[in-house]
Inverse folding.
């Protein structure tokens, strides 16, 4: 009887050991790598290179100049999504980063993004595709609020991220490229004119007033201010409001002084250097090109 029990236990142990040998229990590093390689295959991605950190990347456009350091100021636009497709941020008009490169992770961007920019895509002008493993993104907790199954407000835990990054080499040149594309896409090529100061403008209704607009002027007007993706960030159309010329963005100051008068209905497209520059202003991201539609009701010296 004792021998029978011993034999049974012996074969049970062998079976359990054999079963364990067939089990696959990856740690988070291997789990992430499995997810990324499966994602690459499922999406037909080619030319992806694995960094030693576990990040996969592809340089689409090489950069130029000195390598960026953590203390360097970095301007970039980006789009990204989670691998499960439940979180999407495709809008490069709104997705701007402007800060020191070493502040990426402290500004709630993935640490992996900071790592790969510092080590690999560390020159201005680079355009790259980056696949960031979850342990270098937002880890087991994820980020954001709401249900990961029904909203776009949360990145679930253990989710790898797919980033497309453009590190801006020349902000003014980038803005003008963006404006030119916007004018073409919106069918405005016949109406918009370029001013040597750097902005674009159109006059739908010429003004009839004789009082010039200067730094000492107050105008009464209605207006709509929006980003180039159509998001309205400020608006006053119900009732005209008083606007002191020194209080508005520099591009608008120049444009109104040159082309504005009582009765005028105008549109301006203002590059970031003549708008709010590197500053985040309310709902306006840093380095934003803005469209300003304005109707001037009155000009007061």
């Amino acid at each position: 009887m004792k021998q029978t029990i011993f034999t049974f236990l012996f074969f049970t142990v062998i079976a359990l050991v054999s079963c364990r040998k067939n089990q696959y229990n990856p740690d988070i590093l291997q789990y992430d790598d499995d997810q990324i390689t499966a994602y690459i295959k499922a999406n037909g991605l080619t030319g992806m290179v694995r960094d030693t950190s576990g990040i996969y990347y592809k340089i689409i456009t090489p950069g130029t100049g000195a390598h960026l350091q953590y203390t360097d100021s970095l301007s970039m636009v980006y789009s990204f999504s989670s691998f499960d497709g439940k979180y999407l941020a495709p809008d490069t008009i709104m997705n701007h980063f402007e800060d020191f490169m070493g502040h990426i992770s402290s500004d709630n961007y993935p640490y992996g993004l900071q790592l790969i920019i510092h080590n690999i895509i560390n020159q201005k002008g680079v355009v790259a595709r980056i696949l960031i493993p979850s342990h270098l993104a937002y880890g087991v907790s994820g980020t954001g609020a709401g249900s990961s199954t029904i909203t776009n407000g949360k990145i679930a835990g253990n989710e790898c991220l797919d980033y497309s990054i453009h590190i801006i080499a020349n902000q003014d040149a980038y803005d003008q490229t963006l404006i030119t594309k916007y004018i073409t896409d919106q069918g405005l090529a016949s109406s918009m004119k370029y001013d040597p100061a750097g902005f674009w403008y159109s006059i739908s209704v010429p003004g009839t007033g004789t009082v010039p607009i200067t730094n000492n002027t107050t105008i009464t007007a209605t207006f709509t201010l929006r980003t180039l993706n159509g998001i309205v960030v400020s608006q006053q159309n119900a009732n005209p409001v008083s606007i002191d010329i020194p209080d508005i963005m520099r591009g608008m100051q120049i444009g109104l002084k040159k082309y504005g008068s009582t009765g005028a209905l105008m549109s301006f497209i203002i590059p970031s250097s003549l708008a709010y520059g590197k500053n985040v202003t309310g709902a306006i991201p840093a380095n934003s090109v803005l469209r300003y539609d304005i109707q001037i009701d009155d000009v007061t010296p």
Remarks:
- DSSP finds five helices and 15 strands in the chain.
- The longest strand covers residues 232-244.
- Residues 68 and 119 are 9 Å apart (CA to CA).
- Residues 2-22 form the longest helix (21 residues).
